[in-house]
Design a protein that fits this description.
Helix content: 55-70%
Strand content: under 5%
Mean pLDDT: 87
Number of strands: 2
Low-confidence stretches: none
Number of helices: 15
Shape: globular
Strand order of the largest sheet: 1-2
């Protein structure tokens, strides 16, 4: 009976932690990302035998050790800064304002050793050869995830956009048939802002769409058939990372590749470098005023060079 009571209280803590993550506000995408990071932290506690029963039991040392483990797994400082921001939002929502304080002597970014604020990109553009090698491994594990990965690579999609791309396959196919030079990315976009994205390789996009359509069959239209978008994203990330899409070749490295190819595409059409960067920024969904950011973050050397 005592064991059941303890388990029940631990589960209550986990549910309360997730509830605080949801209640901290923001867009659907922001809340989903916050919930995902909250589950990372809860899984860390569970995997290390730390059975907390209430928010008051959450101590500084648990957060310190969580970040230390993430650093040991070579998670970038930028990602860890985002994770700490999420944990602070959850703690503030739970009334743990001292722990949530960015100036906390033990939990500030500086104290945790993650204060590097450089905006320089930490990923390398994924080469076609590297993509093919990883894609083959993904394909062996889960062809539905492979279909999503291929669309992400060809169109430079964010993870959520790629997972929800099945909703736009017919529209993109029609755009190709009509000879259009762009496709409209509507679902899963950041802030719900649709955009036009350049078709850099028509044959590659046709192949990706045909592949995805085959994997769509009999799965309610979805490519990754999970009850929620969060679960579908988790499945996607688990499979691609286990196949080698991690570290400086994390999923975002596919967007780095697309950004660099997109820049070359626009310069070949006679656009100036400044114009090309603005157009690349719009292709990626950042708007036309982020050219400098695109150069700083996405224009690193290709992996393997």
């Amino acid at each position: 009976m005592a064991q059941n009571s303890t388990r029940s209280k631990v589960e209550q803590f986990r549910k309360a932690f997730i509830t605080h993550a949801r209640q901290a506000g923001g867009s659907f995408v922001t809340v989903a990302d916050r919930e995902r990071i909250a589950r990372y932290f809860l899984d860390y506690l569970k995997n290390n035998g730390i059975k907390l029963r209430q928010m008051d039991s959450l101590k500084v040392k648990y957060i310190e050790r969580y970040i230390a483990e993430r650093k040991a797994n070579h998670i970038s400082h930028r990602t860890l800064q985002n994770e700490m921001s999420v944990l602070r939002a959850i703690l503030a929502q739970a009334g743990k304002h001292k722990l949530a304080d960015t100036a906390n002597t033990r939990l500030s970014n500086q104290a945790l050793g993650i204060s590097d604020m450089s905006r320089k990109g930490t990923k390398m553009a994924l080469t076609s050869a590297a993509f093919s090698e990883i894609f083959q491994q993904v394909e062996q594990k889960d062809r539905h995830v492979a279909a999503v990965m291929q669309l992400a690579y060809v169109l430079g999609l964010r993870t959520k956009e790629a997972v929800e791309a099945y909703k736009s396959l017919a529209t993109w196919k029609k755009a190709l048939d009509n000879g259009d030079n762009t496709v409209r990315v509507v679902f899963g976009t950041k802030g719900g802002r649709p955009r036009q994205t350049a078709i850099l390789d028509r044959a590659a996009l046709q192949h990706a769409i045909a592949y995805a359509e085959r994997e769509q069959a009999g799965r309610s239209g979805k490519l990754i058939d999970k009850p929620t978008i969060t679960q579908a994203i988790d499945r996607y990330r688990y499979i691609v990372r286990s196949a080698g899409l991690s570290g400086n070749k994390a999923p975002h490295s596919m967007r780095y590749h697309f950004a660099q190819q997109s820049g070359e595409y626009y310069k070949a059409q006679g656009f100036s470098e400044r114009e090309a960067l603005a157009l690349v920024s719009m292709d990626l969904g950042h708007g036309d005023g982020r050219g400098r950011y695109i150069r700083q973050v996405y224009y690193r050397k290709t992996e393997g060079e």
